[in-house]
Amino acid sequence: MTRNPYSIGFGKIPTHYISRDILIDEILENLNSEEPQAQAYKLTGIRGSGKTVTLSAIEKSLRNNPDWVVVGIKPEGNIIEDIIGTIYNEVPFLLSFFKSNINLSKFGIGVDIKNIPPVSSLDAALNKILVELSKRKKRLLVTVDEVKNTVSMRDFVQEFQILIRQDLPIYMIIAGLYDDIESLENADHLTFFLRAEKYDMTPLNYTTIRNDYMKTLKVNQDVAEQMAAITKGYAFAYQALGKYMWESEQKDISEDVLLKLDEALSEKVYRKIWSELSPKEKWYLNYIVTKDQMPVSELLQLTQKKKNEFSVPRDGLKRKGIIDTSTRGILKIKLPRLKEFIENNTIE
Hints:
Rossmann fold; 8 strands; three-stranded antiparallel sheet; alpha/beta; five-stranded parallel sheet
């Protein structure tokens, strides 16, 4: 049997996926331009929306470009030390520069170099490395996935701002949940980061999903359109529904396939999202999910609440990527089969 082209694993680019080519090309075009207009980018969205896949695609492209040094780091720990340590261990063309110019032994990186005193700080060491990269016409990209508002992350963003003011070739792309990105944006002294380019992982194009299902699963157009509608353009649901349809070897959507989709959404994504909602957000959501879209006036009538009482839960659900409020006075559920999850969760 041919290998299933769809995957519901996290953390790497699936063998078969719908790429956000326009977004990726826009970022790469700017980064590779002679004078990039932006040096920091934020990718944000709900769990399973494709942030990591998009970030990985950009990393992969630039790792294959000899003009770039790409370093992926975690948001915890000493970020600048991690950047320097990674460059020291993974960038061979800079090894001779390290051995003759920077003594990092004080920080447990490399070995003690005779006649060269240890650098006073890691910030100073990173500055020297960037100056050397600039001389060699190369650029450094730092990527951070699942970013958090940590002390080390805030310190790095502040240092990053200093480095770009010195016109040094350092660039940054971070990916994170709406709340985590917003928390970092609103941290003290990070005004620069608030202005950095932000990209929201909007739903995948329905027509693209339909055409992919028709080509890969060999289902007819009506079934492919039904499948695309079920996913609501949600990247994880697109992969999961494709995976279980492939395994079923059927050309129609069966109840068994939908049950497996619901289980995957529940275990991989929705339980975590649900656990992070406030009691009021959960309470209102129980009413909102009864329809794909609901007028706010109808919700207030059902709940016997006033508009100002709903405003805070509404903003929270919107910020977390669960509801769409772009149409005035209308609430739309953005996540597929959330009603089924909430009904099962309430029963449990």
